[in-house]
Amino acid sequence: MLKSKSLQIALLVALIATLLSFAKFNHCRGTNWASPDVYIHMCYSDISALYGARQIDTDKWPYASADNSLEYPVLTGVVTYLTGLLIDDPNGYRAYFDLNAFLIVLLLFASVFILWRLAPKYTPLFPIAPAVFGSLFINWDIWAVLFALLAIYFFESKPNLSALFLGVAISTKFYPGIILFAIALLLWSQRKHLALIKYLAITLISWLVINLPVAINSYDGWYRFFKLNLDRDSDLGSIWYAANLLGFYGGNINNLTIIAFLIALGAIAVFFFATAPSRSDLANLSTVAFLTLAAFVTISKVYSPQYILWLTPLAVLALSRDSQRFAFWVWQAGEALYHFAIWQYLASYSGAKFGLSQELYALAILARIAALAYFSSVLIRAALADRSQSLRNAQRNPLDFLPDSIYG
């Protein structure tokens, strides 16, 4: 009865979040996404912006062009293409947005359900977080979120299916690939080397099955997503962009991000092996996945508002104490502040009477990063506390000094 009630609460919260999100984006539906309204009212969406810009309105295959293909992985491109086929009106920006928004709502409810199956106590925190529902209709990232959650859900019971879903998730948005690092550490620590090889192989094969047909037929268009990410300089939301705005200029950004991320991976691996024996597989997997993703988005050359959709479900899974909810909301406050800041910063470049200065935008970026770092530190301290408690419990065993043979 209690479990059923917790699901009802989670779905009710998801419904409220959906209504709030749609209300936020509805202004732009009424003005046909005119600028600078899209920034002032924080209702910009790639869904409407790319409908004409990437010729979705003409039913063109998203990866047909070498220089104007969709800047998303293959399965997202398939979604944009198939939903575009259902809209006959070349000026159907609103209809196209509404159709995709409807699908996004369904996917949000499915994601909340899967998250509830994994972490029923804290599930409502995901949809009701302001930056989450504020970013829900920016683009199609919720598709990847659902597939990533399915990969985590099936990891223990059906690892082959989990690997398949992870390959699908990576084909939708590249960020779920970071979860592989946590899975690799977990299986390696349990000396399940063959299971790890099999998991990696199934993930890779499923990704190849989805991507190879498009890469073979439309290589330049398919590769454009990767090229844009490799070639981009410091961009909106990143710590590097904030440093530039404040007058600090570094060296080669690509080299700096790679080196910094490798150092972060090493530190996370040390943390994992120090704490893993005292925690459940789900706690280890979700905490390491969250910390790895947090490091990635902090070190990355760009931070988009919708990245909060990636982070928050993993954060919810990583929560282990009610006391951590304060840190969760501190982090979410930082994200909400950044969500406001980026749109008002962009408004200042699009003819708005009021906007955010470069310095204030840079400070908002740093505040978001600081809030994320604070929440991450709370998760780390909790894991270390679990380890210390486990060690103390082991030392209290009065039979520990006896030889193993006495136990039979």
Low-confidence stretches: 398-408
Shape: globular
Tally of contiguous helical segments: 18
What percentage of amino acids are in beta strands? Answer: under 5%
- Mean pLDDT score, rounded? 92
Order of helices and strands: HHHHHHHHHHHHHHHHHH
What oligomeric assembly is this protein in?
Answer: single chain
The SS-based structural class is mainly alpha
| Biggest pleated-sheet summary | none
Helix share bin: over 70%
Annotation, overall tally of beta strands = 0
Radius of gyration, whole Å? 22 Å
**Domain count:** 1
Query: Termini, distance in Å?
Result: 44 Å
Description:
There is one protein chain. By secondary structure, the chain is mainly alpha-helical. It has helices at residues 2-31, 37-40, 46-53, 74-85, 93-118, 125-128, 130-135, 141-153, 159-172, 179-189, 193-217, 219-231, 239-245, 253-275, 281-299, 308-318, 324-347, 358-395. Helix 5 (93-118) runs parallel beside helix 8. Helix content is 71%, strand content 0%. The longest helix has 38 residues, at 358-395. It has 18 helices and no strands. It has one domain.
